[in-house]
Amino acid sequence: MKIAACIKRVPDMELRFAIAGDGKSLNPAGMKYDIADFDGYAVEVALRFVEQNSPGEVVVISLGPDGVQETLRKALGMGVDRAVQLKADEVPFDGMAIATALAGELRDGGYDLILFGRMATDSANQAVGPMTAQLLGLPCVTAVSKLEVAGGRGKAQRQLEGATESIEFPLPAVVTIDEGVARPRLPSLKGIMAAKKKPLEVKPAQLGEARLSVVTMELPPDRPPGRIIGEGADAVPELIRLLQTEAKVL
Amino acid sequence: MASTFRGVDFYNLDGLLSEEERAVRDTVRAWVDEHLMPVIGDAYIKGEFPKQLIPGMAELGLYGANLPEEYGCAGLNNVAYGLIMQELERGDSGIRSFASVQGGLVMYPIYAFGSEEQKRRWLPSLAAGKDIGCFGLTEPDYGSNPAGMITTAKETKDGWLLNGAKMWITNGSQATVSIIWAKTGSVDDVKSIRGFIVPTDTKGYTAKDQKGKLSLRASDTSEIVLQDCLVPKDALLPKSGGIKSPLMCLTQARYGIAWGALGAAMACYDEALDYSKNRVMFGKPIGQTQLQQVRLAEMLTEITKAQFLVLQLGRLKDAGTMTPEQVSLAKRNNVNIACECAREARRLLGANGILAEYHSMRHMANLESVYTYEGTHDMHGLILGQAVTGLSAF
Asked: Which pTM was predicted?
């Protein structure tokens, strides 16, 4: 089985963000980056498939500046066989521009399965996976929480609100992975050392036209401070009145 | 989901680490968050080493990580090794002690003083956590003066006959193999000290846990008795000779301790900082008071200085030019500042600070052992005094 996992390098979502001077991008000072959460799940799914159905190959692909090599090497440290950087000065906001470059790389790769995370944890567009599938003319299942492959066909489950949906599809296919399938492993120390010797190919990204652009970016307003309206039972009527008229939650 | 530790890096020291060093650090940090932090409080209160973590640590490659790959180890440089120790002790000194002993005091002497057969027999199984090791040097009456030891090894036609007692032995009761240091000549012949690889199921070898510890409670500390314990001739570490050999092992372990104590200090600072921003008293967070701000500033300053100290020490070790005295300075300083940080953090946390739910008091109690073991704070002072004056005071 040959599997590609397309991964994105994103800022650590638990750090405090600052907007850069241009008003439409993040200030990179003090920023830390890692593989996007759902993309980590996609890598883990790919590794497990190949471990259980060897021989096989897992290839990770990431688009962006040279910083993405660190993220690719992390995946190599987890056990991925080889990596490809589609080099671009920056990652466009327009998913179609990215999908065009990825499809160009994936088209003749002979992959049985092309995995993405359900969405990138920074832009949260959930678009690049389905767009890539469309460009490649492949079936696409999104937000998959369980995946099986046998006899050239795949079976996937999606968790809906209060229900589970089961889907079958022929391979090759594009699947975007939700959490819950398999918790990503940590790269072992030997894996980290071995990653340095694994192939990491750098190619220029053949980006599609970017038709969307970020105009402005703003931090959410500060939350107003809490208010003490009284003490003990006497305060209850006023509290209920405010919950009804002001907060409108009752 | 466990909370995530993000380290303390006021001077962008990350910029001085290689990508690989950062990757190693991040892996161990994530492992500690996920596997150690949820269980350490209970393990500490129960006074039990969390044995269930041994295989996971082996799988990551934490034992003897700076030894070569051909023996089943990760072959990391010494800065990466130090970062592992830092992250483990950020969790708990007992867990770091376990890994320190396994790597620095058991695998290292087999690697440095052992025959090729001994290395092939023991190093892969110790790296894989299938064997657990301990290091028997200290004796009931010979702590700071290990050269005075009275454990003996007499050569007989069948092998070496060991007799004596060892004390304060980390991992002692759970070890499957013990590195025992003994005199092969008379008790005043320091040059006759040699190391032996002793499987703990050898007849005449017994170990029992020392009870009633108020520090390093999540770590086994044992007393070992050797009574006519006969080991084959090839149990001798052929390249060991004199007190210098075990002291070389201690240099390795102390190197790890200097990094480890820093991890404990970082954990305490992180906890204190977080608490100071959330704990409201007199209508404002206590972090908004001058008193607590200065407390935090002192901690941050000492941690930052200590970080530079061990990073350069690691670079010297990788270059092969590190001296034991430089290790003494780092062990002495970093454990001392860690003790101070833990105490100050505990105080900042007020009454909550005495609960196991918070970590500072556990670190504070642990660090009292770390302050004393592997060369006490005072002894390292004397080693430094001797180094600069050329005059020995001990």
From this structure: 0.91
